[in-house]
Amino acid sequence: MSHSATSSRLGTDAALAARATRPGVLSAVTRYYSLTKPGVLYGNVLTTVAGYLLAAALFEFSWIVFVGVVVGSTLVIASACVLNNVLDRDIDTLMRRTSTRATVTGAIKGVPATIFSIVLGVLGVALLILTTNWLVVATGVGGFVVYVWLYGALSKRKSVHGTLVGSVSGAAPVLGGYIAASGQFDVAAIAVFLMMFFWQMPEFYSIAIYRRDEYARAGVPVITVVRSIRRAVWEIFIYTVLFVAASLLLPAFGYVGIAYAVVMGGLGLVWIILAVVGLRTRDVEQWSHRMFHGSMWMILALCLMLSVGALLP
Questions:
Q1: How far does CA 74 lie from the centroid of its chain?
Q2: Each residue's pLDDT tens digit, 69-94
Q3: Which of 9, 41, 50, 257 has the highest local Cβ count within 10 Å?
Q4: Do the domain assignments include residue 18?
């Protein structure tokens, strides 16, 4: 066999080998990516961006800080989600919507998943330190600790108040985004934190209604399991009202204009009416689906209005 033929054969073999291993590599990347809970991740990234743009319109915009807080926060949140997957393997096995996670099926073992989480967390915190301020770093690290340990490892498993604890970590990204641009903890910072904190309660309690049986089977003490669906409906109504009130703090204190107040006030009224419907309906499960979808539209509208509210009349 000539040298050129040998080279051709080796090149063909290398191409075939690369083609054979490529799907495996892509599959592994996909599995690790899934551990970051992309749906949760991107939702939190959206609130981080909204918080930053609100503060940037009031103070000063910096591309370095913007990219740093968005990417750094994303990495820290991803780290928390991955570690949460590792800790929740026993619960996830018993719930239909989580039973196919890579940490449950064994596609990714606990040790490599934990290492992946550590790498993401270290990179994220380092980026926050280099590009933002100590308030943002403290918020990011605090959100991580609350989500992974106080919520995931403790209150989620032992207390009906686990959702309240988890909502603290869920409100950290928008707060981190705001104080990255403002550099201070002011009334607007409190307002955006309260908005996200209150918004999560109707959103999650709606899920707790239509997935009650799954939570009961997994032994997770959510409100619909420990107390009642009726109690959950009432609390959804209360927290919806509190969310709308919190969303109107910004125009009340002059951080945004009338356009924000009209849009968020109008949408908030619609969401409150939908919550009232839940107090009267006989088909609570169907209503809870509508309430959940309403919460998704509400958070999208909120992020949009936070981003542009200070720039509008």
A1: 10
A2: 999 999 999 999 999 989 888 787 87
A3: 50
A4: no
Instruction: Evaluate if residue 151 carries a pLDDT over 70.
Output: yes
pLDDT digits (tens, 9 = 90+) for 163-209: 999 999 999 999 999 999 999 999 999 999 999 999 999 999 999 99
Q: Which of 59, 55, 102, 60 is nearest to 82 (CA)?
A: 102
- Domain holding 165, by residue range, is 35-185
Is residue 3, in this structure, part of any structural domain at all?
A: no
Among residues 185, 207, 222, the one where a domain terminates is 185
**Tokens encoding 57:** 């319109």
Nearest one of 157, 294, 165 to 237, comparing CA atoms: 294
Are 205 and 236 within 8 A, CB to CB? yes
